[in-house]
């Protein structure tokens, strides 16, 4: 039932004050798949995500969830279908992992309702899925960056939404933890059919983990589709202003982008022969 | 709904046990604080120039006529003790609401200028306009609401950011205090004494007339705030996360501000701005409860206990009788300094 939710942006224009960030953007998020949004700094990736979870009202255009404008839906009803993990969420001082994950139950609770066994089960499922059960009674402050990120994802999971938006879920994590988080999101997508939309900085990880890649440039979509079709040398040049070489990643069969800077970039023949670059 | 892969029962047990443990710690703190408030309330009724045993006090409270005690306890001490409790609950609840909402212990109404606004207006009404009694109280209430509105408007820019509101509030507080100082410098001897009450806060001269409106305000605004408990807890996670959880952030904030300012305004009108009670109650409650749930009720009880105990100390612990605000001020100031020193060390984040 999860794959039935459709999420789309229609002629969306977003602005902060006078500064227009996104202009006339149309986007269709494939249901039940993983979408990654990539682009240069300040190209509007996070802004787009914020608007899709209605943290930002559109200047014009609409974000549609199952054909209804998200900005018109009752707040809690939306929060039961669509979750968002912001880029730098704030944990109250001293809060325990289980308590924080339990906060994800907010849209399922009423003002004076008691905590239900269903809530406990949802929190437990979220802890197990993120392998944070052993941390349940620890204070969030004491955890490592990787553990903390898993806990935040657990909170979003406890919300039990069919659509999950994540703003740079791998920032500040070392490479092992980045992979761990992306694997976890893939598990979630495969096991439950959760539609995932994430903003990622790392093009190669985005290309590897996404089913659908969206490259933003200057507030518009430069290219969208299968990673192999989107991540090209031409696209990297247009979106990032960077020369690169895109090869097939021998590990995943997905495209792999190798940036070409002014230094340490040998002619291709040398690279292929394995001699060190100049 | 997502089909939940059902977790092993052991994890559900762990989660449920942890939750029950956290809740019971909080309930225990609430029970102990309630008991302490009751004891301090009883002591306030018994102790004074004449000591009355609990039996006499109880009979007076229940409405029997006890020679001597009926007047002293019934007419003098009871309104004072009731006002101490009601004002303490109001200050504590309002303070912790602001602190929770703005995620900053400095954000209490007595730091960000709301109480200073009430004080300045009251001093102005007494000294310049020559008013007294209810008129002064009404002025104080209107001024508190006005100052809150002013701070909110000045801090509003695509929603209200906590730090901006606090800084603007501190500026407004300084402005109000300078108005008060100026007004006091113009005051005659009699007005000066009366106006001074509006600077430190005092329960002297408590009457039922002053207590009843404060009690009514608590009965109206208290439940409103308690109804926002879950939303306020969610706000602690930041505006983005809480909106993503389905909280209507700006609406929650407006309701909380109106209710908290209402509490502060009525309590301040009755007994002046008892220094630092709304500032101290939340952090003390946080120490007692730990990260185990909402602080609204515990902080309200701590507020009541602070006012009762500080008033007892002020009256009987020293040779001279000090107004309650002097005692709470002595307690609060070092904590304020501690917070500022700590914020210097942590680079500004409190």
Give keywords:
heterodimer, A: 278 residues, four-stranded antiparallel β-sheet, 26% strand, globular, B: 350 residues, mainly alpha, 14 helices
Descriptive overview:
The complex is a heterodimer of chains A (278) and B (350). Chain A is 33% helix and 26% strand. Chain A is an alpha/beta fold. A six-stranded mixed sheet of chain A has the order 6-7-8-3-9-10, sandwiched between helices. In chain A, strand 1 and strand 2 form a beta hairpin. The mean pLDDT of chain A is 90. The longest helix of chain B has 38 residues, at 9-46. The mean pLDDT of chain B is 88. Helices cover 75% and strands 0% of the residues of chain B. Chain B has helices at residues 9-46, 54-61, 69-101, 114-127, 134-155, 162-185, 189-200, 208-227, 229-235, 239-244, 249-271, 277-289, 296-316, 324-345. Chain B has 350 residues and is mainly alpha-helical. In chain B, helix 2 (54-61) packs across helix 3 and helix 5 runs antiparallel to helix 6 (162-185). Chain B has 14 helices and no strands. At the A-B interface, helix 2, strand 6, helix 3 and helix 4 of A face helix 1, helix 9 and helix 10 of B.
Provide a concise account of the structure shown.
Chain A has helices at residues 45-52, 75-81, 97-103, 117-129, 145-158, 175-192, 203-209, 227-230, 233-240, 268-273; strands at 7-16, 19-29, 34-39, 60-65, 68-69, 82-85, 163-167, 195-199, 212-217, 220-225, 243-248, 255-260. With 278 residues, chain A is an alpha/beta fold.
């Amino acid at each position: 039932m999860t794959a039935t939710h459709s999420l789309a942006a229609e002629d969306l224009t977003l602005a902060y004050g006078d500064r227009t960030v996104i202009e006339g953007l149309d986007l269709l998020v494939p249901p039940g798949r993983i979408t990654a949004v990539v682009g240069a700094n300040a190209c509007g990736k996070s802004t787009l995500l914020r608007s899709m979870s209605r943290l930002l009202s559109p200047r014009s255009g609409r974000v549609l969830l199952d054909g209804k404008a998200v900005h018109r839906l009752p707040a809690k009803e939306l929060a039961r279908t669509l979750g968002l993990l912001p880029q730098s969420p704030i944990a109250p001082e001293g809060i325990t992992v289980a308590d924080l994950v339990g906060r994800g139950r907010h849209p399922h609770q009423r003002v004076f309702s008691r905590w239900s066994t269903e809530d406990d089960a949802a929190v437990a499922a979220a802890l197990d899925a993120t392998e944070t059960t052993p941390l349940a009674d620890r204070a969030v402050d004491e955890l490592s960056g990787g553990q903390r990120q898993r806990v935040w994802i657990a909170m979003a999971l406890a919300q039990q939404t069919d659509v999950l938006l994540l703003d740079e879920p791998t920032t500040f994590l070392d490479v092992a933890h980045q992979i761990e988080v992306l694997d976890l999101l893939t598990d979630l997508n495969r096991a439950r059919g959760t539609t995932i939309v994430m903003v990622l900085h790392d093009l190669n990880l985005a290309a590897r983990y996404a089913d659908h890649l969206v490259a933003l440039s200057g507030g518009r979509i430069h290219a969208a589709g299968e990673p192999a079709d989107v991540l090209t040398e031409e696209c990297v040049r247009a979106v990032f202003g960077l020369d690169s070489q895109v090869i097939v990643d021998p590990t995943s069969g997905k495209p792999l982008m190798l940036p070409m800077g002014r230094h340490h970039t040998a002619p291709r023949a040398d690279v292929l022969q394995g001699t060190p670059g100049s | 709904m997502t089909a939940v892969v059902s977790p092993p029962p052991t994890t559900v047990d762990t989660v449920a046990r942890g939750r029950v443990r956290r809740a019971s710690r909080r309930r225990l703190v609430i029970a102990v604080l309630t008991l302490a408030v009751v004891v301090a309330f009883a002591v306030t009724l018994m102790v004074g120039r004449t000591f009355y045993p609990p039996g006499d006090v109880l009979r007076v409270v229940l409405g029997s006529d006890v020679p001597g005690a009926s007047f002293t306890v019934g007419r003098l001490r009871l309104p004072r003790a009731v006002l101490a409790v009601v004002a303490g609950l109001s200050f504590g609840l309002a303070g912790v609401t602001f602190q929770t909402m703005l995620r900053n212990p400095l954000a209490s109404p007595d730091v960000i200028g709301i109480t200073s606004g009430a004080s300045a207006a009251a001093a102005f009404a007494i000294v310049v306009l020559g008013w007294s009694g209810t008129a002064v109280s009404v002025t104080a209430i209107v001024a508190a609401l006005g100052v809150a509105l002013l701070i909110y408007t000045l801090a509003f820019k695509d929603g209200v950011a906590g730090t901006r509101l606090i800084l603007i509030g501190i500026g407004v507080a300084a402005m109000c205090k300078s108005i008060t100082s100026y007004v006091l410098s113009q005051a005659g001897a009699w007005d000066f004494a009366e106006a001074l009450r509006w600077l430190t806060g005092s329960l002297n001269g408590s009457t039922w007339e002053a207590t009843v409106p404060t009690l009514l305000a608590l009965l109206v605004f208290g439940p409103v705030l308690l109804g926002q408990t879950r939303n306020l807890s969610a706000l602690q996670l930041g505006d983005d996360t809480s909106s993503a959880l389905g909280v209507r952030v700006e609406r929650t904030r407006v309701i909380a501000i109106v209710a908290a300012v209402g509490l502060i305004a009525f309590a301040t009108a009755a007994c002046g701005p008892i220094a630092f009670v709304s500032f101290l109650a939340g952090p003390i409650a946080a120490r007692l409860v730990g990260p185990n749930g909402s602080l609204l009720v515990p902080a309200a009880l701590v507020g009541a206990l602070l006012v009762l105990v500080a008033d007892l100390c002020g009256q009987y612990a020293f040779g001279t009788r000090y107004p309650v605000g002097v005692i709470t001020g002595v307690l609060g100031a070092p904590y304020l300094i501690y917070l500022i020193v700590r914020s210097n060390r942590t680079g500004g984040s409190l």
